[in-house]
Design goal:
Length: 893
């Protein structure tokens, strides 16, 4: 915030209204980092600096915030490299002033996809400090005590390896921790094995510290060590252990001193501004390590300097964080780079405003007696409409004052508004041809030169080439179509009351939509090979155009078949229009709902999927072949829900139609026979299915329940190879996940097949197959006493949410195998009981028989299944799998 907003001041007679003006421009980020870090190094080198002072203000961080995709992660990575040494630093960044200091950069990605929790964050910092080549006994002893309490029986080194920390920082950390524990035990003259006596060491050390014994004088200077060792070693205590790290760093001799620079990227994934549990723990790390420097990158500025957060965070207010206070926020003007660090500003905006910053802007722009003049409801509407564009916020503020001048108090509905002024400003210096291209590409989420030119109906690309040089056209060099309009500009061009001389009529817009849809179809049709990314991208944009402008399906129908045939299931659904939230009126509406339902079924309960597909099928809006697609997937959902007869009727209807889905429906009938235990019929059907009916996978699914694991694995392998030959990624992943399951019963020491399944599944979105791969991992580990029960409980929860009844029976059968191997009678009986409950519908009832076969028990009554070579050979094979696993585990010990 800077200066006075004179336009606002001269727009009202209200002399009690305070106005302020905000500017947002890009910074020279490296210069800001260099200045801030140099200041930090001077501060920590001062004789008066005390690492154990918990009351002094903190200025040991800098924050770069901005909208997603603006390059914050790239900046974080470049900063990490630049801090390693001059050879990794771009030449244009210049030489920093701390060349004589030792800097240790540690970058931590907090993105949800990185799966970084607080425990891993602390371990990452400690692992990076292993570079010092020495133990950090105060911290290491506390961490070792925490680890043994919270992870009994789990090797820290193995945990670090799985988390990738060993690869990043080597294996020195566990060795250093062991050495620290040994040194303390020796100083205390403790007998016995150090590794099993961490509790005794901690207790003895605490007593020695309390009694001020000379034997532990090296650690007695850490005033709070005894308190931390006495505290319950839980996550809350762990969040205070960084104080011990800071203390250990301060004890290093001058020639060994190092300043960690910890880069926390994707900070927005730590939580939102309501749920701050993880943020509170991370803030403690920053506060308790005043001799480390932190570089935070995220979408929103940190609010730690806000006094209102007392109680949500431990350290709040401008006195605690002077560099984070609103008055110290750095506008991203170029001239701010050299003076920002000296002035104390440590929050730098690097792009359009985030929603929180829009709200802050509007709250501060107009105020009376320190309170926002624009209320929260109005601020929310403006923020949602603005797409973070400061100009829109500015225009909304002027509209607010304009309405007040009429004597009426503004209400939120006044700001569900597109400003014609934005069009006027956008079009003011464009040529007529450029204006025409701009309106045309406003129909598209993204575009390239060819698509823009074709959508505009032009014969030459020059106008589009000039348009992409404009600042409101954003570029993503790695996107399929590299250009897109700024969100607000696009919305305004399409929806605002356009008073320009060359404004378009509704017919002009409709014809442009037809051109854009045709252009997308041409790009897809002329692509070389099977370009899945292009297909999905064309569908996403094409479906939106066809729905919004009530266009015919055209090429979208064939593209829909290509989308479904690969079984990858990327999300497709365009935003729902409020007026069409619950109605399907055109074929385009129905196709949007059909494809979005098929994609969403990987993330929602099958009950909801079945209801949505039934609604689509009931409209009768789709052409015959796409209508049969809806019927087929409805029947699949019904099968997953255990509604066998409904599923059978749907499959038979599709087969009778003789369309493209008929082979799949014939496979569906074979699956239904298998569900009921009619294996000869399923095998017979498989012989006639061919590749289109996935005959090899059907064979595999029959063979594995016979206990013929090698034969099943061979069939699944053949199915995967066929799928790869036909470039059907989803089918390849599904077949491989089932091959991994079959092989897990007979070759638990071979990880390659499961790793291949996980690799193939990472490219598609098939929940059932992913769960089958996780079940395969359980079968591989069956007979061990690790975390199988916890993993199974987690899978049960996920399966319950998805409504995949068939997968749940497989999970319970896997747990029966585990209990049979362990000869755990009570647990086995509990799993068999769950199987009985799950198979009450009549589907998979033979799983109960198999569970008895595994344990060498006799089922209650005769088996209802028609086993391929009889019950006794099947019983023998399943029992052999159990005895062979026991022998394998005995030999492995």
């Amino acid at each position: 915030m800077a200066g006075r907003d004179l336009r606002a001041l001269f727009s009202s007679n209200d002399r009690g209204m305070a106005t302020a003006e905000a500017f947002t421009n890009r910074q020279l980020q490296w210069e800001l980092i260099a200045a801030a870090l140099a200041e930090h190094l001077r501060h920590t080198a001062d004789r008066g600096f005390d690492v154990e002072d918990l009351e002094a203000p903190r200025n040991n961080l800098i924050v770069f915030h901005g909208v997603g995709g603006i390059g914050k992660t790239t900046l974080s990575r470049k900063l990490e490299n630049a801090l390693v040494g001059a050879e990794h630093r771009p030449a244009q960044w210049g030489e920093p002033t701390w060349s004589g200091e030792r800097i240790l950069p540690v970058r931590i990605d907090l993105a949800r996809s990185a799966n970084t929790d607080f425990e891993q964050l602390v371990l990452t910092i400690r692992a990076a400090l292993a570079e010092l080549g020495r133990p950090l006994p105060a911290f290491d002893l506390a961490l070792r005590r925490y680890w043994e309490q919270q992870h009994p029986g789990e090797s820290l080194e193995e945990y670090l390896r799985r988390g990738g920390l060993v690869g990043r920082f080597g294996k020195a950390m566990p060795q250093q921790m062991q050495a620290a524990l040994a040194d303390v035990a020796q100083a205390l003259l403790l007998p016995g094995s150090v590794g099993s006596a961490v509790g005794a060491v901690a207790g003895s050390l605490t007593r020695a510290l309390r009694e001020r014994r000379q034997t532990v004088r090296a650690l007695s200077g850490c005033a709070r060590l005894a308190d931390l060792l006495e505290a319950e070693p839980d996550l809350e205590a762990l969040s205070f252990y960084p104080h011990l790290l800071a203390w250990e760093l301060a004890q290093l001799p001058a020639d060994k001193r190092v300043t960690p620079v910890i880069l926390l990227d994707t900070f927005e994934d730590v939580g939102d501004r309501t749920h701050r549990d993880l943020e509170r723990l991370i803030q403690r790390v920053v506060w308790l390590m005043p001799n480390a420097f932190f570089i935070v990158t995220g979408r929103s500025r940190l609010q730690w300097a806000e006094p209102a957060l007392q109680g949500q965070l431990d350290y709040t207010g401008p006195a605690a964080w002077p560099g984070l206070a609103a008055s110290a926020v750095v506008p991203n003007a170029r001239t701010a780079a050299t003076g920002a660090a000296r002035s104390g500003g440590r929050q730098v905006l690097v792009g359009d405003f985030s929603p929180e910053d829009c709200d802050d802007y509007l709250a501060r722009r107009l105020a009376r007696e320190g309170h926002p003049l624009i209320n929260a409801e109005i601020r929310q509407v403006i923020t949602d409409r603005s797409h973070g564009l400061p100009l829109y916020l500015d225009l909304s503020v002027m509209r607010f004052l304009e309405i007040r001048r009429t004597g009426r108090e503004p209400v939120p509905a006044d700001f569900d508004h597109d400003f014609g002024a934005l069009i006027a400003r956008t079009l003011s210096d464009l040529t007529p041809e450029e204006r025409h291209v701009l309106r045309s590409v406003a129909l598209l989420d993204a575009f390239d030169l060819a698509l823009a030119t074709r959508a505009a109906g032009m014969l030459h690309e020059a106008p589009a080439m000039r348009l992409i040089e404009r600042p409101f056209v954003r570029e993503n060099a790695f996107g399929l179509w590299p250009y897109h309009l700024h969100g607000l500009i696009r919305s305004t061009v399409r929806n605002a009351d356009d008073q320009a001389d060359d404004r378009w009529s509704p017919r002009d817009w409709h014809q442009a939509a037809e051109r854009a849809l045709a252009a997308l179809g041409e790009q897809w049709a002329t692509s070389t090979g099977r370009d899945r990314m292009l297909l999905v991208s064309c569908l996403r944009q094409g479906l939106l155009l066809a729905r919004d402008f009530r266009l015919g399906l055209g090429w979208l129908a064939e593209a829909a078949w290509s989308y479904v045939s690969d079984s990858v299931w990327e999300p497709l659904a365009p935003p729902t229009r409020p007026e069409q939230a619950s109605t399907l009126e055109t074929a385009a509406d129905a196709l949007v709902e059909l494809l979005s339902t098929l994609a969403r079924r990987q993330h929602e309960h099958r009950e909801h999927t079945a209801a949505r597909l039934a609604a689509v099928a009931g409209t009768g809006l789709l052409p015959t072949d796409l209508h049969e697609m809806a019927i087929y997937y409805l029947a699949k959902a019904q099968r997953d829900l255990g509604r066998t007869e409904e599923s059978r009727r749907g499959m038979e209807q599709v087969i009778a139609g003789g369309g493209r889905m008929a082979p799949a429906a014939e496979r569906g009938l074979a699956h239904l026979s298998r569900l009921l235990g009619d294996f000869p019929t399923a095998i017979e059907a498989a012989q006639t299915l061919g590749w289109e009916g996935r005959h090899q996978r059907v064979l595999g699914e029959v063979w594995w329940v016979q206990g013929e694991m090698a034969r099943a694995a061979a069939a699944y392998q053949a199915a995967r190879i066929e799928a790869e030959q036909h470039s059907i990624a989803g089918e390849a992943a599904t077949s491989q996940s089932m091959r991994a399951l079959a092989l897990a019963f007979i070759h638990p020491d071979e990880a390659d097949e499961l790793e291949l399944a996980e690799q193939l599944l990472s490219r598609v979105n098939i929940r059932a197959s992913r769960i089958n791969a996780e079940i395969a991992a359980l079968v591989r580990d069956a007979g061990t006493t690790g975390d199988l029960e916890d993993r199974a409980a987690h899978l049960r929860t996920e399966i319950s949410v998805s409504g995949l009844a068939s997968v749940e029976t497989t999970l319970e059968l896997a747990m029966c195998f585990h209990h049979a191997v362990l000869d755990a009678h009570a647990e086995l009986e509990a799993s068999i009981s769950r199987l009985r409950e799950l198979t009450q519908s009549g589907n998979y009832t033979y799983y109960v028989d198999i569970a008895h076969f595994m344990a060498g028990l006799s089922p209650n009554g005769d088996s209802t299944a028609r086993w391929l070579d009889g019950e006794q050979p099947t019983r023998s094979r399943w029992r052999t799998l159990v005895t062979e696993r026991r022998e394998y585990l005995r030999n492995a010990r």
